[in-house]
Each structure stands twice: as C-alpha cells, then as structure tokens.
Design a protein that fits this description.
The protein is an alpha+beta fold and 371 residues long. The chain has helices at 6-10, 22-30, 73-81, 112-130, 142-148, 170-174, 179-194, 209-224, 234-243, 286-302, 335-361, and strands at residues 40-42, 45-49, 52-57, 60-62, 89-92, 105-106, 134-138, 153-163, 197-203, 248-255, 258-267, 271-279, 306-308, 322-332. The chain is built from 11 helices and 14 strands.
C-alpha cells in the first residue's frame, strides 16, 4: 500500500468505509500483521487512465485460509486428497474483517461491469500462468455482488446486524421488544451497574498510548483463552489510532477507576462497526454491554442507520440484531472441482435460507415479521 498514493486510493472509496481506506490497509502491512511471511502477500490491482488512478482492488496471494471468516478448509482438504494444490490462492478481502463493503473501487462514471471483467480476466490469466488454484472475493456489498456473480460462483452466508428504525433512544428501542425480552436486556444492563462497572465511549483522538496498550493486552486474552495467537500486532493499533482517529471509537469499562475491558469500534458514514474486544477478567454480561448495547446507544445518539457487530453470534438475536444476507464469490481453475463446489453452494444456499427464516422467528420484537 505504501507504493500507492493515499489520496488517489481514498478518492475511490465510497461511503467513508473505514476498512477500505488507505490508512487501514497500510497499517495492516506496515505493522507486520499482513505480510508474505504470515501468508498474506499483497498484490493489489490498479487501473490508470491518463496517469490517474481510476480503479483499484485489494488483492492478496494466500498460502492458507486463516483470518477470512468464510470457511473453505474442506475445499482445500478435498484438493489435497485428490493430489492437487489448493494453495496459493487469490483473495480479495479486508484481512481479518468480515464486514460487507466495496471490493473493487471504481471512479464514478466508469462502467463497473467492464472494470470487473478486466480485473478478473487478468487474475485468471495469472492463475493459469503460475498454477494458482482459485480466486475468492469475500463480503462484497450487494451492489457489487451482482456484477461479480456473472463470472464467479456465489456463496451465501448470514450475519446479525442492528438497524435503526427511527428510534428516539435506547428505551424507545426496547419498547418494541416483547415484555420478556425487554426485561432480560434491562436486567443485563442493571447488573453491570450493580457490580460498580462504569463505561465510557472515547473518540479516537482521545485514546492515549497507555489506553491502547492496555486494550491490546485484553485483545490478546480473547485469543489466548482459545489457544490461538492474535492476528494483529500491537503496532497495528498504535498506527490506526495515529493515522485515522476520526474513524475510531473505544468503549472502555472501568472498575474502581481501573480499565478492566474495552471494545474497539470503527465509524463509517452511516454504519458503526464493532470489531475487537477483550477483558482483564470475565464479568457476567459485560461483553453484551460493551460490544452491543453501547454500540446501539452510539448509533442512536449519532443518527447512524446500521450497526455491524461482526460475524457469527446467535446470542445477538435476543438483543435486537436481525439476520442479514452476506456473500462471497469464488472461481476455481479446475473445472471438475468447480462443478462439485457449484452443486454444494446450491444446497448450502437452501440451508441458509431456512436458517435465516428460523432466526427471524426468534427476534425479540413484538412483531417479528421484519424484512
């Protein structure tokens, strides 16, 4: 990313997407979080017209499938058992970030379908020349999913997100819940106060070096307790606080004036993104308060329309997060495997549709027929 002019890249980013901005992607590389050595080799695609950058696409050559949140480990295993190499593979995605958004940046006025076809043709040619098995595009926004799906297999997924239905405040939001679910949320919030824990939402410009250092210890704990190593380095967080503070908010939890937990959010034009969480020790209900309820309150106070709290988590349904469709696109050079995976994706799509309908029935609202 350091080889690309930041202003030229950022002018192509729509809706102030914090994860596609040059500062975020460069911080991933410059912090050592995304490198050739750890399996993410940057090969970003650029298109120029008369010396001006008119289209771009983040692209990585991957030697594994970790940090993607769209799981193709079974595909890789099937390749291995057939005596074929699945890695390396091409990936267009925001590393470690399962949030929908632009995946191909295109200057307004250019025909998106033509640009997308040119990029994909180049990738396919390079794949055949260098024995690269496949290309994958993860979490594109719905408007970009349609033109991409003309040449790629489409995979359907589900996430849980919050929508602002013109609520006046958090209490007004809860009034739309059934009595039982409303009481559960109020009980969860009350127990945080009873433990003496206070929360503060801190804008990026006020997050100190010591504060982000403490946050990183909490972030590490989230991985260590599951026997994993964190994807991101301490340097990454220090870089983004320095270079893009206006797009960041930290919810800090204090007990006896000591920072004991924190959740780091990113702020877009109309959407709040909940991304990283960690704590010094476990406190019952604190995760829900710091990662969900504080985020909803922030959206209501700042008139944001959506709250994307990340991948997975059926426990979000009872707290007012609705199931929404997500997508990924895939191309496999081996035609036999492409046919097999196409059949699998058709069957998986039916399951996802049934799962979404099941989740909608579990929403806490008085009227759960929300589309």
């Amino acid at each position: 990313m350091d080889e690309i002019d930041p202003a030229s890249w950022n002018q192509l980013v729509q809706k102030d997407d914090p994860f596609l901005c040059h500062e975020f992607l460069a911080a991933l590389e410059n912090s050592g979080s995304v490198t050739l050595e750890n399996g993410w080799h940057p090969h970003h695609c650029l298109m120029y017209e008369n010396g001006q950058l008119v289209a771009a696409m983040p692209l990585y050559l991957k030697s594994h499938s970790r940090g993607e949140y769209v799981f193709d480990f079974q595909w890789a295993d099937a390749y291995h058992r057939a005596g074929l190499q699945y890695y390396p593979k091409w990936l267009t995605a925001i590393p470690f970030t399962p949030c929908q958004g632009q995946r191909i940046l295109i200057r307004p006025g250019l025909l998106a379908e033509n640009i997308i076809k040119l990029f994909l043709d180049q990738i396919k040619q390079l794949s055949h020349e260098h024995s690269i098995s496949s290309y994958h595009c993860l979490f594109p926004s719905p408007p970009q999913t349609r033109p991409l799906s003309a040449d790629l297999l489409i995979r359907h997924g589900i996430q849980f997100q919050w929508r602002n239905q013109d609520y006046d405040n958090f209490e007004h939001f809860l009034q739309h819940f059934s009595s039982r679910h409303r009481k559960n949320v109020k009980r969860e919030r009350t127990q945080i106060n009873q433990m003496g824990i206070t929360l503060q939402r801190i804008p990026g410009s006020h997050i100190s070096h010591d504060m982000i250092t403490a946050f990183y210890r909490f972030y590490q704990n989230t991985y260590f307790k599951n026997g994993q190593h964190p994807y991101l380095t301490p340097e990454f967080f220090h870089l983004i606080i320095k270079q893009m503070p206006q797009k960041i908010m930290l919810t800090a939890a204090y007990l006896d004036k000591q920072l004991v937990a924190a959740a780091l959010y990113f702020v877009g034009e109309n959407t709040l993104f909940g991304r990283y969480w960690g704590c010094q020790q476990e406190f019952n209900g604190l995760h829900f308060e710091a990662c969900y309820y504080q985020g909803i309150e922030y959206c209501l106070e700042n008139k944001l329309q959506h709250f994307d709290s990340g991948a997975q988590g059926e426990h979000k349904i009872a707290r007012g997060f609705e199931p929404v469709d997500t997508y990924s696109l895939h191309w496999l050079a081996d035609q036999k495997f492409s046919g097999i995976i196409k059949d699998f994706l058709q069957r998986e799509k039916k399951y996802m549709q049934e799962y979404k309908a099941h989740c909608k029935k579990k929403l806490p609202f008085k009227n759960t027929s929300i589309d």
